Amino acid sequence: MKRLNYCAVAVVLSAMALGCGQQPVVEQVAEYEAMTIATADTEVTSKFSASIRGRQDINIMPQVSGTISSVCVLEGESVKKGEVLFVIDQVPYKAALTTAEANVEAAKAAVETAELTYKSKQELYARSVISEYELSVSKNQLQSAKAAYAQAEAQRVNAANSLSYTEVKAPSAGVVGTIPYRVGALVGPSMAQPLTTVSDNSEMYVYFSINERELLKLTRQFGSMSEALKSLPEPELVLSDGSTYEHKGAIETISGVVDRETGSVSLRAVFPNPGRILLSGSTGNVVLRYMEKNTIVIPCSATYEVQDKTYVYQSVDGKAVSKIIEVSKYDGKNYIVRAGLEAGEVIITEGVAMLRENMPVSLKMQASADCAQAEVADIAAEDAIATEAENNPVSEE
To answer: pLDDT, tens digit, for every residue of 159-184?
Structure first.
């Protein structure tokens, strides 16, 4: 009897609670910003580490041995082709040339004497005064004299060349490098260190590398490597101090060999250097800017990584579902999507780090589908304004 009373009381209390207006607890779903994927033509900027070399960096080596008697240039001086850089002691080489010239004159006289003898022998043989043997001996003597004359002439040419080599001349126009040797130093062709280096820096070679995957993409896009070379944009050069070089260059060659260690291919660009600002041996960065059609750009904040794989979240039946995508770097805040997303799909763009698989979500769409591209344009405009302010500072009086 008491048990029934307790049940009745419980029913009455439940009825009273419902009568007071209490509602069942409803789980709240968090709201996240999302964007609809759209394609657009996008300017892509790629930056590559580069090394700068003179068009010609020529090591100047002596061709004869001797002591330096004169240094005719200064380090860093601009020289013309054929200008004398060093003079090696000429005394022994002048003496050798004089001796060689004297030997030529003696050999020439011997040839003339042998010719006279041979002509005389021919007349005597015609009169049957001498035998054919004596005539042949005379002829052989003439040929030997001519050979000795040719040998003496060759020695004279060699001596003259050796004397000319005592004046070490610039093989091309350029700028003189360091000069480790001074007057009185003994030099020769077999020494390890050159006398100096002449760098032709009227135009500079800039070497940089791209990965094999990027090269294959360009080759497939344009049909061949030669067509890809023609279609590459004019490169810009960012110097080691962060400034952009005022002249644009041109990409001349693409190596046909892939580096096994880095998996990259070397390219060479040439830049004009009228102000001699670029120096051989310095470094910088090559920047390529080109348009990619129908690209998808998403903010980096819309992605997360697990074991080198990139994911985004989508809403499926009101729940967060992850999806693998392939991306490449675009700028510090956005990625270019290479695979995994198509135009019209919706992805979550905020709070990705807090989401979990199958977590209930509610989406709040962004105002425009191409917000990532607009954000990139804003960043570029801000950078341009900052650069203009740096280049044209306003003085305060």
So the answer is: 999 999 999 999 988 889 899 999 99
Does residue 325 sit in helix, strand or coil?
strand
Domains of the chain: 31-43+294-376 (2.40.420.20), 46-55+199-289 (2.40.30.170), 62-87+169-193 (2.40.50.100), 91-165 (1.10.287.470)
Nearest to 292 by CA among 226, 333, 231, 379: 231
Q: In what order do the strands lie in the sheet with 186-187?
A: 167-169, 84-88, 66-71, 186-187
CA separation (Å) from 207 to 18, 54, 149, 268?
A: 80, 11, 54, 5
pLDDT mean values, one per 10 residues, the chain (397 residues): 40 45 58 88 84 88 95 92 95 96 96 95 91 93 96 96 95 89 94 90 88 77 75 88 91 82 86 86 88 86 88 89 86 84 89 87 67 50 52 44
Q: What are phi and psi of 286, to 5 degrees?
A: -90, 130
Instruction: State phi, psi for 342 to the nearest 5 degrees.
Output: -130, 160
H helix runs in 32-131, sequence order: 91-126
Q: Residue 3: its pLDDT value, please?
A: 38
How far from 41 is each of 218, 231, 297, 336, 337, CA to CA, in Å?
Answer: 17, 17, 10, 11, 13
Cα 345 to chain center, whole Å?
Answer: 40
SS3 category, 279: coil
**Residue at token pair 């348009």:** 291
Quick one: pLDDT at residue 361?
85
pLDDT of 333-344, one tens digit each?
A: 888 888 889 888
